[in-house]
Amino acid sequence: MAWGERRPADWSLLGGTDPAPGSAEDVQRASVAWAGNAGRLADAQDGLTRTVMAGEGAAVSAVRTLLERDAALIGMYRVACEDIARAFQRWAASLAGFQVEAARLLFQAVQAHDDEEAGYKLIDAGKAERIHAAGQRSLLEGIAQAAAETLAPAVTEIFSDSRGEAMVDEARERLDALRRQAEELRNRYDIEGRRVAGSLHIPAGPVTQQAGLGITDSRAGSGYFAALLALRKDPRYASLNALHAKAAQGDVAARQDYLALLARLSPADLVIYGMTNPDRARNPLAMANNTAHVKSWWDGLAPDARALLTATVPGIIGNLNGIPYSVRNTANRQLIQILTTNPPADEATRKAIEGINNSLSYDDGSPRTDRFVVSFDLNKGKPLAAVAIGDLDTAGNVTWNIPGMGTTVAPGGIDAWTMGAQAVYDRQQRLLARFGPVGMTNAVVSWVGYDTPGMFPDSMDVFASDKAWAGADKLPPPWTDSMKPGTLAMVRGSRRSTSWPIPTAPPRPPTA
């Protein structure tokens, strides 16, 4: 019987019910579904394994342990899914074979039953033939015929009822044999089915102890497993999606709630959320003037929670005003590493990574320890970034070196602009050493954090101020905790500086 054909409803000729019930197609679909589950868990395990925790210390070590634990846990579930997929695959093949055999037995039983019915018809016909023949003979002829049938049946006249009785006997013997074969098939079906059912096992209980990590995880089990496979049905993820959508529309409260919910996710949940929502993990949240709240939220997190968020949602942490710039540097470098390991499709992002890496190294390729990636925004295929020279978290004097037309994050853009920022930094250091307060340090930011005007004459953007003011809105406000007291020097498109004491900002042109 081919897949897709409807199975007969009546199996009474074989002495009972269908010897091999079920749908091989459905079982095959189940195998494919479990193989898909295994694939998704393999991706999740790979994501946990690839999540790099930069730095040292107890918090970082704790998060590494959590990631290793959950990677082992998900690995066990993955193996279970693979085993189940293979078990269903074997069962689909066995079931198909059983059903072919059952269909053959039923076909032969129908033939035997038809032969039995034909035999009964011959018996009825033979009786009529005997009555007719008896009516044609005399008494003496009848006696002689009866004696001949008794003494020499092989040479006497054969009537239909004799052939019919032989057919019925032979058909019944065949049906009995087929019913025995059907019963034996039912037993084999049951044994194989029980064997397959015994292999459909999902680890439960403290499975991380089984993984050899010695850590009891009360969340492990089929419920956790199901959640990993159906993230979109998890109410927490539904809430995250709804809050992110509101935050994107400028809802500051939703932005704060989104961050709080992210921080409450487990390591595995957070990694998998980032994998299934890469755009959210790799891009900044919508801008909002809530730096003080972000700082309070971040300061209130446990060290391992901070380390985990930095590693798993680097695009958010690396661009969030209110978070220490040293942490933002770690997050943005993590994002660069992720994108280097899994290169993006668009050329602009690949070039941006090259330009940033050039900015962070000497000409011979060796790393510069005094440079920090304080922002990195993929910006829908038009990347933006900022590289700081010096420690922004401790500097008493900060300069934002802001380019004009034609500067991008690609090689020849941000790296060249950072070389200019280095010259400013070096000059400031000499001046601070001679004239500045004792102990004051400085930092200069090579900030390509806005969409600069195109090059003239290909573009006329440079003759308008729209892009300049749009870029100004993206700068960290100097009167927040993101900045230290001192003087802010703004370099807009040239080496001419406009300086003003913090917290006073330059006036914005009136809006229409």
Q: Could you explain how this protein is built, in words?
A:
The chain is α/β, with parallel strands linked by helices. Strands 1-2-4-3-5-6 form a 6-stranded mixed β-sheet. The chain is elongated and about 145 Å long. The protein is built from 17 helices and 6 strands. Mean pLDDT is 78; it is low at 205-226 and 479-512. 57% of the residues lie in helices and 7% in strands. Strand 5 and strand 6 (497-501) form a beta hairpin. It has helices at residues 24-50, 58-136, 139-151, 160-199, 207-210, 222-229, 235-248, 252-263, 267-276, 278-282, 291-299, 303-312, 314-317, 325-341, 347-359, 414-435, 466-472; strands spanning 371-377, 384-389, 397-402, 442-448, 487-492, 497-501.
